[in-house]
From TrEMBL:
Amino acids binding 5-aminolevulinate 2: S271, Y310
Catalytic residues (positions): K192 (schiff-base intermediate with substrate), K245 (schiff-base intermediate with substrate)
GO term, biological process aspect, one: protoporphyrinogen IX biosynthetic process
Protein name stated in the entry: Delta-aminolevulinic acid dehydratase
Residues bound to 5-aminolevulinate 1: R202, R214
Natural source organism: Pyramidobacter porci
Organism taxonomic ancestry: Bacteria, Thermotogati, Synergistota, Synergistia, Synergistales
EC number annotated for this UniProt entry: 4.2.1.24
Catalysed reaction equations from the record: 2 5-aminolevulinate = porphobilinogen + 2 H2O + H(+)
Length: 326
């Protein structure tokens, strides 16, 4: 009987050669916050290392992305004025529309993704049109379609509905097609949980609900089969890509969704997950480059074709520099 060693003694080069999961900068999507004004580049305390930009300074981060090889950006807007119906979200001169036009002109090779939701633009902070304290799903679809068409007209290559309204993909697809923009991609937040890990984002985007919460339309963290149902529905409605959010805490759902999906699947390593690693690294409790890379490899191993992460630029640099070898 021949007894074989359970694990080969591998050199770093051999480990890299036979690694089952690979990462590359062009699979990362970088989330960026755009606020109204001029000359703005400001730190976000709840997201260390991240900044808010105004439309005129937005090309600064696009230039950095280009240097790192990150080729897709996801935009979130902070308007100066908010109202009950979030009119700033589809204003042709809205903050995101301005940023899209500037970005497309200066870096046309980058893929621009517009977040389609209303919470950043409404005075009440909810993701749709309210009747009393309840979101009206069907009425909200009309407004979401306006947002998507407006963003696409301003230069968005991809629109990403994050609202979790029933029927949102079908509504956006029909609206874009009717506007002569059949080539635009719909990247749906198909499986978005009512997570406690969105806190830093809500601070960064000024999008916390004025009352109540979003559990009425986002998913129950206790449910996995529901996520598969949501993913199937969005694919049937015409989603070109779908997303599971949050990322690290829902890798079981990500794997299950990947197995039934006929379209690319993304994962969003959300603000709270990012902030946890940052805080531990600042205390010296974690090696930040290795921890960030391990998280990203885990998401890719679970099935993510693309990863939305606030660490996109750092991770792209670390990979290039060989700082995250295992």
């Amino acid at each position: 009987m021949i007894v074989r060693p359970r694990r080969l003694r591998q050199t770093p080069a051999l480990r890299n050669l036979v690694a089952e999961t690979r990462l590359s900068a062009d699979m990362f999507i970088y989330p960026v916050f755009i606020r109204e004004g001029r000359g703005i580049v400001e730190d976000i305390p709840s997201l260390p290392g991240q900044k808010r930009y105004s439309p005129d300074t937005f090309p600064l981060v696009l230039e950095e992305m280009a240097r790192c090889g990150v080729r897709a950006v996801l935009l979130f807007g902070l308007p100066e004025r908010k109202d009950e119906t979030g009119t700033g979200a589809w204003d042709e001169n809205g903050v995101i529309q301005q940023a899209l036009r500037v970005g497309k002109k200066t870096f046309p090779e980058i893929t621009f993704i517009g977040d389609v939701c209303m919470c950043e633009y409404t005075s009440h902070g909810h993701c749709g049109i309210l009747h009393g304290h309840e979101v009206d799903n069907d009425e909200t679809l009309e407004y979401l379609t306006r947002i998507a068409v407006s963003q696409a007209a301003a230069g968005a290559d991809v629109v990403a509905p994050s609202d979790m309204m029933d029927g949102h993909v079908a509504a956006l697809r029909a609206g874009l097609d009717a506007a002569g923009m059949k080539d635009k991609i719909v990247f749906s937040y198909a499986v978005k949980y009512a997570s406690a890990f969105y806190g830093p984002f809500r601070d960064a985007a000024g999008s916390a609900p004025a009352f109540g919460d979003r559990r009425g339309y986002q998913m129950d963290p206790r449910n996995a089969r529901e996520g598969l149902k949501e993913a199937r529905l969005d694919i049937e409605e015409g989603a070109d890509m779908i997303m599971v959010k949050p990322g690290l805490l829902y890798m079981d759902v990500l794997r299950a969704v990947k197995e039934i999906s006929s379209v690319p699947v993304g994962s969003y390593c959300v603000s709270g997950e990012y902030a946890m690693i940052k805080a531990a690294a600042a205390k010296g409790w974690l090696d930040e480059p290795r921890a960030v890379a391990e998280a990203a490899y885990s998401l890719a191993r679970a099935g993510a074709d693309v990863i939305v992460t606030y660490s996109a630029l750092d991770l792209a640099r670390w990979l290039k520099e060989g700082r995250v070898a295992f």
